[in-house]
Amino acid sequence: MGNLNEQEVDSAKKVYPIMSYRYTVPVKSVAENLHQIRQEVIRTAISCGRQPETIQILAVSKTMEPWRIMEAYEAGQRLFGENRVQEAFEKIPALRDKEITWHFIGHLQSNKTRAAVELFDVIQTVHNPKLARRLNLHCQELGKKSIDVMIQVNQAEEPQKSGVRIENLTRMISVVDDLPNLNLVGLMTIPPFSEDQEKSRPYFRQLRQLRDQINLERKIHLQHLSMGIQINGVWLQRWFTYLPKNADRLQSPLWLYC
User: Fold this and answer.
1) In the prediction, which pLDDT does 31 show?
2) Residue 189: which CATH number?
């Protein structure tokens, strides 16, 4: 699917009359962007000695209209990320019949946990025991057997960011492991902002090392790392599926703004 013309936009609005975003025709279509990123992923994975098919791309669909999400979906994209529960509540139900896995990637407030459990398949930003317990409770209340979660790690101990400090990570993992409805699948981090991307690499490398060290003592390994960088004021996230080595060499942003 390429760029939508005015007639297609009007048709999409009739099918998905949910949000009142202003539509701007992109310079490059979502399908073209996806193809370009997939090619970059393939090249970089091969250079790192990895199988490209083991790397998943998570498309960040926040602020995007449902018909633009459908453009990515028609191009084969199946993983999407949202960072606001209210926006997702208006958007996800309209696309519920699609084979989409929804990730929550924003700061999760306590009063939004029930809705988050109801809407999402993966919560990436679990950052304290209270939040974890509320998610587990809501799973039980809603009859949801389990939900995949990731623990957000605040490696730089930035006060403006949520996340578990490294010295508290082992305890936080124990809390999540003791909650029967939470399935811990990985770690997530957003390093300090810097115009120099190279300054983010030590945080990526450290998170991978933390994950590998934790896995030495786990029967069920943590498979995923989610890492974010900010370039020119835009957040670009990296979603690695079991990259035990050379993850810091993967230079292409794997989270896509569609």
Assistant:
1) 82
2) 3.20.20.10
